[in-house]
Amino acid sequence: MKTSKQIIIFFICSLGGIVSACANAEFERAKIDGHDIYLNINKCEYSIDGGDLKKLNLSEKCYFIRNNITKDIAYSFEKDIRSNVILIVGESVTNNPDFPLTKIRKDCGSQLQALILPKEGKPKLSKVIKETITCAGIGVDKKEFWIISH
For the purposes of burial, counting CB atoms within 10 Å of the CB of 80, is it exposed (0-12), middle (13-18) or buried (19 or more)? Predict the structure, then answer.
């Protein structure tokens, strides 16, 4: 029996006719305002609603960052940029003696980028923030979503 994660991976890979290239792919999924956002963890690529995979400007591995209070993946800014913002961490960091969390967590990285999903128009990527250590599962607060997306 296939798990839902395996079914999602097969579905995404089948869309582009690239099943062989996706055989070992791992994806994270988020549902934002009725859109399915998929993140290829190993290649740092994303897809919206089953469209083509697009490359982030991050090094491998990549993870969705959660809000540290609500655990939501996206934060909505209605008044200024009228967009949903997803933060993604890349450039995997493990076993760094200066950051003890990296010894026990596999979702930490040293690069951050925002995927900005406007209410109207095409998705945009923010510039990459480097030389910071963030762990996706621990999360960040609203202020960091705002800083990286504006």
Answer: exposed
Q: What is the pTM (predicted TM-score) of this model?
A: 0.80
Length of the chain: 150
What distance in Å separates the CA atoms of residue 115 and residue 94, rounded to the nearest whole number?
Answer: 24
Please, what's the b/e burial string for 116-131 (b: 16 or more CB within 10 A of its CB; e: otherwise)?
bbeeeeebebbebbee
The residues with which 86 forms a beta bridge, in sequence order, are 74, 115
Closest CA to 63 of 127, 138, 8: 138
* Closest of 67, 31, 33, 28 to residue 45, by C-alpha: 28
pLDDT in tens, 65-114: 998 888 888 888 888 888 999 999 999 999 998 999 999 999 999 999 99
Q: Which DSSP state fits 42? A: T
- Separation between Cα atoms, residue 65 and residue 73, nearest integer Å: 6
